[in-house]
Structure formats: C-alpha cells, structure tokens
Amino acid sequence: MPPTPPAGSFGLAIVVMLGFTDSISVTMRTAIVQFSTPDNLIGRASSVRNLSAGVADNVGQIEVGMMAALLGAGNAMVMGRIIAVFFIIALWRFVRNIVRYQYRPNVVEAATSKP
C-alpha cells in the first residue's frame, strides 16, 4: 500500500473530527429527550426520535442525489452547506426557546407526579 499523501491525511483528520462531533451531538440530543420526557412516555419519545433520525438520513440522501443530478456533485455540496447555514441562522434567530433551553428536573417531576 503506497504512503498516504499529506492532503489525504488532512482529509482523514477532518472526517474523524466530523464523526467525533456527530457522536457528541447524537449523545446530547438523546440525553435531552431522556431527561425531559416523563417516565411513562420515555419509550414513545425515544422511538419517535429514533424514527425521525433514521428517516431524515434517507430523505437527505434522496435530496442530495436529486441536487447532484441537477447541479453536479460539487455544486450540490456547496448548495447543501449554504442551505444548512441559512436554516441554522434562522432557527437561532426565530426560535429562541432552542437557544435558551434548560433542563428543569423539578418541572418534569411535578408533571409526572400523581396527587
């Protein structure tokens, strides 16, 4: 096997870093669902989260394939990044509850406790 060129090493490092940050993101989303859902609904909430994550991956692949067929692979990647940044900025600006989210265990316990 020939030695890896420096550009290949840089690309590999980027892919490793993206995988690492994705793992952290998945762990945080899972923890938010588990901590903020009442005990009697945790199975349903986890199932919906898992289903939406699985479906989103497949729908995203279809969208990327269609964009690549229309614009070319490189342009589809650039367009995807532009759209993603646009939606992140829009969420940050217009859905302030996401920005200010805080886990409050007493509120969850009060909602699930029986009188």
Could you tell me the number of beta strands?
Answer: 0
Low-confidence stretches: none
Whole-number radius of gyration?
A: 20 Å
Individual helix count: 5
Shape type = extended
Task: Report strand %.
Answer: under 5%
Structure description:
There is one protein chain. With 115 residues, this protein is mainly α. The protein has a domain at 58-115. Helices cover 83% and strands 0% of the residues. The chain is built from five helices and no strands. It has helices at 6-36, 42-71, 73-94, 96-99, 105-112. The protein starts with 5 loop residues before the first helix and ends with a helix. The model has no long low-confidence stretch (mean pLDDT 83).
Describe the structure in brief.
The protein is 83% helix and 0% strand.
Helices and strands, with pairings:
Elements: H1 6-36, H2 42-71, H3 73-94, H4 96-99, H5 105-112
Please describe the structure with a list of short key phrases separated by commas or semicolons:
115 residues, mainly alpha
